Amino acid sequence: MENLALGAMLFGTVHDERRSFELLDRFVDAGGVWIDTANCYSFWADPSGFGGQSETVLGRWLARRPGVRDRIRISTKVGCEPTEAGRFPETAEGLSAKVVKSGIEGSLRRLGTDHAELYWAHKPDPLTPLEETVAALDELVAAGTVGRLGCSNYPTWQIEQARRTAQVQGRTGFTAIQQQYSYLRPRPATRPSVVHRFGAVTGEVLHYLEHHPDMVLWAYTPLLGGSYTRPDKPLQAEYDHPGTTRRLQVLDDIAAETDSGRNRVVLAWMTGGSPAATPIVGVSTVQQLDEAVAGVTLQLTAGQRERLDGAV
Questions:
Q1: Res 194 pLDDT > 70
Q2: Is residue 180 a contact partner of residue 221, using CB atoms and an 8 Å limit?
Q3: What does the domain layout of the chain look like in residue ranges?
Q4: Which DSSP string corresponds to 212-230?
Q5: Does residue 198 contact residue 154 with C-beta atoms inside 8 Å?
Q6: Taken in order 272, 273, 279, 285, is the CA torsion positive or negative?
Q7: What angle do CA 124, 170, 105 make, to 5 degrees?
Q8: N or C: which end of the chain has fewer CB within 10 A?
Q9: Of 225, 215, 216, 213, whose CA–CA distance to 283 is shortest?
Q10: Which CATH fold would you assign to the domain 5-310?
Q11: Confidence of residue 193 (pLDDT cuts 50, 70, 90)
């Protein structure tokens, strides 16, 4: 099951080690492969003001599960760890060659492994020349320290610029994009309530992916933090428009037809769409994880997918 990633962002902070291990075990037992984390997770939830807790818990889990490393793939990131507690994003570490090198060394040390299958530039760094970042990331691939490269929260023009730079220099380029993406669409001229300015998938991003089949899309916050199903998690203001009402109605209709629920249909729509997306689910309970697994295995008919796509 490679079309679903378990988000480990809150492991070691909001979720203690026992709960984190429980979710990781359940994910692997269900056939899950990808686990997504970052060197900065979760600095905002830890009293120290710095990250690393998620990778540390993952490392402890791997150490206590001999052989499981061969069954999973690790996705981690560099670029957002604050250099001063309480001052993000203005003191984010950035993507200089020095930071990229020390970032992967620290991540692998905490994870207790010698490589990561996917390494992300977590957000653009306006202070470091793109050529420097591209070269530093390429060195990690050449050394076998990381398998593939991705970029998160980047504007489309900068994704293309980075890829062209890599191509001209004969280096490894980005082949994955990680942005916020879900079935509901924010009102035009607004963006989802995320920290990063370019963190949302837009029509331009989708158009870019359609014309670059070597690129894959990973989607964070695919279930909008529980807003599809939980009354205590109302939708953010940017989703308050007639298109949301129409999309929710179709979503409910198809949930009834498939004897499932909104969350399952959303995940099925994402993983089976064009372009297909790999949702990163941040769950708190085994029941939520089981629902996510059921969602990515749910098969929608062509007619159901057409109705979902056509609701605007």
A1: no
A2: yes
A3: 5-310
A4: -TT-EEEEESTTGGGTTT-
A5: yes
A6: negative
A7: 50
A8: C
A9: 225
A10: TIM Barrel (3.20.20)
A11: low
